[in-house]
Specification:
This protein is α/β, with parallel strands linked by helices. The chain has seven helices and five strands. The two termini are 35 Å apart.
Length: 307
């Protein structure tokens, strides 16, 4: 059995840890509120521009725009994987990386074997994970969430578009955590380039009121475009791509803070349970030590009397 000094040391250590986890939970809760405000402000526009692109595509010949061109053979691929820069968020990163690995095995194993699969990792965890496993990394976006700004999405999209047009990769996919609520995140893998023929809707989009996720009545709606529909489409595509990636970054940031808050709350609760057990163990050890001392004193007194 551990000595009383060792148990007291463990109790002090657990108390310090509990204070840290409680503070980290409060910090994560404050960051989550800000992240939620940003994502709730960005979602309506991101959803609407996605819906508009889908309507325009049905009415126009988009073959003239290279970003809509689906390649006959997928020789190269780029996967944008969005994780956090820090840990202590439960299984937030591990679950997403499992989805990324499953997506590679399902869709891009041939490109992986041929060495034409590239990974653009946003966040230190994804960068380290794929770097250690020998993947070909594009760019370095570690620390991206330390100061998350809209131009970052444009920079990443420009890199993806440049490689797509140049033929370095024939498809671009984004894997990220979509924020549903504080406890739950949806792991999403969606195609960014070429722009999909059918509009992709995430689980949150399908649950959003007022968002038309059906295409049955799309052909019945008539639009008047000014300037021309083609000019409008060409103007919207770069903004559409940047805003979709920006939304993915915001979704991941809000999901990370929610996951960290839940993880730190669970750690604080577990520390409290451990403290109860340690205090009970300490009291039992202390009682045993006192009993032993009393027995020794009694035995010594009895021995002196007999002597």
């Amino acid at each position: 059995m551990a000595s009383l000094r060792d148990i007291r040391g463990r109790i002090g250590s657990v108390k310090n840890t509990q204070q840290i986890t409680r503070a980290m939970k409060m910090v994560a809760a404050a960051k989550l509120r800000k992240a939620q405000e940003r994502i709730f402000a960005a979602r309506p526009y991101a959803f609407k521009i996605r819906e508009m692109i889908g309507h325009l595509r049905q009415r126009l010949d988009v073959t003239s725009n290279p970003l809509f061109e689906a390649r006959d053979e997928i020789e190269g691929a780029l996967m944008i994987v969005v994780t956090s820069d820090r840990g202590l968020a439960g299984a937030f990163n591990a679950n997403l990386l499992k989805v990324a690995e499953a997506t590679i095995a399902e869709r891009f194993q041939a490109q992986r074997d041929a060495g034409t699969l590239r990974i653009l990792a946003v966040g230190r965890k994804a960068h380290e994970y794929f770097g250690k496993r020998g993947f070909d990394l594009v760019g370095d976006y570690q620390g991206a969430f330390n100061d998350l700004r809209f131009p970052l999405a444009g920079e990443i999209v420009d890199l993806a578009v440049e490689g797509f047009v140049a033929g370095e990769w024939d498809v671009v996919e984004v894997v990220y955590n979509e924020f549903k609520n504080t406890i739950t995140q949806n792991r999403v893998a969606e195609q960014l380039l070429p722009v999909p023929a059918e509009t992709f809707f995430t689980p949150v989009m399908e649950e959003t009121e007022g968002l038309d996720t059906s295409t049955d009545q799309a052909d019945e709606v008539e639009y008047i475009f000014e300037p021309s529909a083609q000019a409008l489409l060409d103007r919207l595509i770069p903004e559409y791509l940047q805003y979709q990636l920006w939304r993915a970054l915001l979704e991941s940031n809000a999901s990370e803070q929610g996951a960290r808050m839940v993880a730190m709350d669970a750690a604080t609760t577990n520390a409290g349970e451990l403290l109860k057990d340690l205090k009970l163990t300490y009291n039992r050890a202390r009682q045993a030590a006192i009993t032993t001392e009393i027995i020794e004193i009694s035995s010594g007194a009895e021995a002196m009397t007999q002597g």
